[in-house]
């Protein structure tokens, strides 16, 4: 395997793993914010317990996502110095804003939310979780602004062999970014909805004593999953209108379309292979479409079933299927990400910089060592995150530490 292929594989594995954390973080943050709004307005103890339980799962996933994000960004300097040198002045600005939002604003207010239970007014505490949620959206937005530029470079000019940003408005209005943002945000809501419904169904199937707690949670998760699936599909349809010619030809699979794209690229950029890996693009696209159909059918059927109290209480086969569906949105999002990223090959910045030119001057041996190290670290982080989430989810709301008051030990009485 060539050095550039090893570098691409490493970034694909690490970015894909980080993407899983991001999707669940966005979905759970939204659900927790909505739940806390309900609890604050109604002063419902049950809904506040729901905030604490789902909020603790959110915090676990958020913390692991931060770690994977830091590790992933090391690669821009290690493996892709050609990309940062050529285009860092443009897409680097979006990444810098995202870092400020995620690590300074979002993390600060999340810390205040975690440690502010019973120390702040309920309205101030509610405001904190909404700030955390909105900054999470902002973080995703700036990441997709950077990614959209790589997909469809706009608002720039080449000066002394490197890109310079000339139109910040064009960068923000890039359709390759805006449509992807709506698509990813909708996908994250699907992930959060299926996760909440699946965990709740697990407890309902096992007849745990928190039946009312998890019946309400199941309805909320299912109630979010169906509209989120429809919204995601709408943005996905718009995304097909912004496909690069090579990606569109690979998706259609027509030999004439592929030959035309190759001929046009050769005429513009000189000899070379300008077609993406056709089989991989089509496989990822078909997988995404098939799993979307599964989620749409299942979420629609679940939406109808949740209207019947007996089904929510005791339809165990449905509960089992809901739990089994938890990983499906994750796999669907990964397939969509592969379709989006692999489809623009061989370009790192479409039409301006090839992936080979974006590579750092590394040997194949160095890349193999790096790939093994990064894969091991990310594999360990995924296993730890899964174990922590599963352990916390199985224990239920009684074992949640978030927002609980410490047991005060009375001071000893001194006698003489």
Automatic annotation (TrEMBL):
Membrane topology classification: Multi-pass membrane protein
Database matches in InterPro entries: Cyt-d_ubiquinol_oxidase_su_1
Keywords recorded for this protein, A-Z: Cell membrane, Electron transport, Heme, Iron, Membrane, Metal-binding, Transmembrane, Transmembrane helix, Transport
Location in or out of the cell: Cell membrane
Transmembrane residue ranges: 12-35, 56-78, 90-115, 127-150, 170-197, 218-240, 284-308, 320-339, 369-389
Keyword Transmembrane helix: yes
Family according to the record: Belongs to the cytochrome ubiquinol oxidase subunit 1 family.
Protein name as annotated: Cytochrome ubiquinol oxidase subunit I
